[in-house]
């Protein structure tokens, strides 16, 4: 598999978003572990998680524990980067909360490290800015975690350009990534992608298949036409529309590393194949 970089770590060009393995309608544990193993077999070396990826209120860290179990039963995974996040919660009713209090973030990171194992978290990300906490204070907690060695690198999620630049001042080279929603249907983070490219930060699109997998839904004619084009290119290439979409992401910039979710082994294997799919300039122009 082709590779890209997050900070000084070389990882697969396509990652695994592990959230579907732990939230509502999740697979049984055996299939969940098999999905992670299939991703590893296919060459994926980036797994994205969060302490809030769980279903019920009393199972904080479910996804992290699942990943730790899958890695422990696989073999040598020293080359795998697990990126987790802190600062959000799930009270069990389907909603999401935000908590950017520095004390909470430090405790959350320490708990994540205990669940994941090892001597440090490879990449720890602020899940979302808390409007009730000064942003610099939340980012300062990441600085503290870097300084104590609890985490090796820091990232941000759901942020704008000003927040990226402010965090860069606090974290310096410790800031290595930004994770925002980005897909054929949701391109509002294009400015953040460009800024990441300029700063040398990895850009991890979450929900990267948004739109393509919902192409049958009603929507603007231009978007529906774009979805059809993904399908037409896929049919001509004998690949899936999802693989075309991930290849489209990779062609946006060398800092882009999509993290599609999967709840079945075959989905993880299919996503991995997109890393080696090159779209032509004409195909990219039609999709863009």
Write up this protein.
There is one protein chain. The chain is α/β, with parallel strands linked by helices and 288 residues long. The chain has ten helices and eleven strands. It has helices at 29-41, 62-72, 102-116, 135-148, 161-171, 190-199, 221-237, 241-252, 265-273, 281-287, and strands spanning 3-6, 9-12, 16-17, 46-48, 81-86, 88-89, 97-98, 123-126, 154-157, 175-179, 202-203. Strands 3-4-5-8-9-10-11 form a seven-stranded parallel sheet, with helices on one face. A two-stranded antiparallel ribbon has the order 1-2. The chain has a two-stranded antiparallel ribbon with strand order 6-7. A hairpin with a 2-residue loop joins β1 (3-6) and β2 (9-12). α1 packs across α2, α1 (29-41) packs parallel to α9 (265-273) and α4 runs parallel beside α5. The longest helix is centred in the C-terminal third of the chain and has 17 residues, at 221-237. It is globular. It starts with a strand and ends with a helix. 47% of the residues are buried. Mean pLDDT is 94; it is low at 215-221.
- Sequence of secondary-structure elements: EEEHEHEEEHEHEHEHEHHHH
**Proportion of residues in extended strands:** 5-15%
Q: Oligomeric form of this entry?
A: single chain
C-alpha end-to-end distance = 25 Å
**Poorly predicted ranges (pLDDT <50, ≥5 residues)?**
215-221
Instruction: Specify the overall morphology.
Output: globular
Gyration radius, to the nearest Å? 18 Å
Question: Tell me about the biggest sheet?
Answer: 7 strands, parallel
**Mean model confidence by pLDDT:** 94
Beta-strand segment tally: 11
The strand line-up of the biggest sheet is 3-4-5-8-9-10-11
Number of helical segments? 10
- Structural class of the secondary structure composition? alpha/beta
Q: What share of the residues lie within helices?
A: 40-55%
């Amino acid at each position: 598999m082709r590779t890209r970089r997050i900070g000084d770590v070389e990882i697969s060009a396509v990652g695994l978003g592990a959230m579907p393995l732990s939230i509502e309608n999740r697979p049984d544990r055996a299939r969940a572990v098999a999905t992670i193993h299939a991703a590893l077999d296919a060459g994926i070396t980036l797994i994205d998680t969060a302490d809030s990826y769980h279903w019920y209120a009393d199972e904080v860290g479910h996804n992290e524990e699942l990943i730790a179990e899958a890695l422990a039963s696989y073999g040598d995974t020293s080359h795998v980067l697990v990126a987790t996040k802190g600062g959000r919660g799930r009270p069990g009713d389907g909603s999401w909360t935000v908590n950017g209090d520095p004390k909470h973030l430090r405790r959350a990171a320490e708990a994540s490290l205990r669940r994941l194992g090892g001597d440090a978290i490879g990449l720890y990300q602020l899940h979302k800015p808390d409007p009730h906490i000064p942003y610099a204070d939340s980012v300062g907690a990441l600085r503290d975690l870097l300084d104590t060695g609890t985490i090796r690198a820091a990232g941000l999620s759901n942020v704008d350009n000003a927040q990226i630049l402010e965090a860069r001042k606090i974290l310096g080279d410790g800031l290595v990534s930004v994770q925002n929603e980005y897909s054929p249907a949701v391109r509002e983070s294009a400015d953040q992608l460009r800024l990441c490219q300029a700063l040398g930060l990895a850009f991890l699109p979450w929900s990267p298949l948004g739109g393509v997998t919902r192409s049958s839904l009603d929507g603007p004619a231009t978007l529906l036409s774009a979805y059809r084009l993904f399908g037409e290119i896929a049919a001509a290439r004998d690949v899936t529309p999802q693989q075309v979409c991930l290849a489209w992401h990779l062609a946006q910039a060398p800092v882009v590393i999509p993290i599609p979710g999967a709840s079945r082994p075959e989905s993880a294997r299919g996503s991995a194949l997109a890393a080696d799919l090159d779209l032509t300039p004409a195909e990219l122009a039609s999709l863009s």
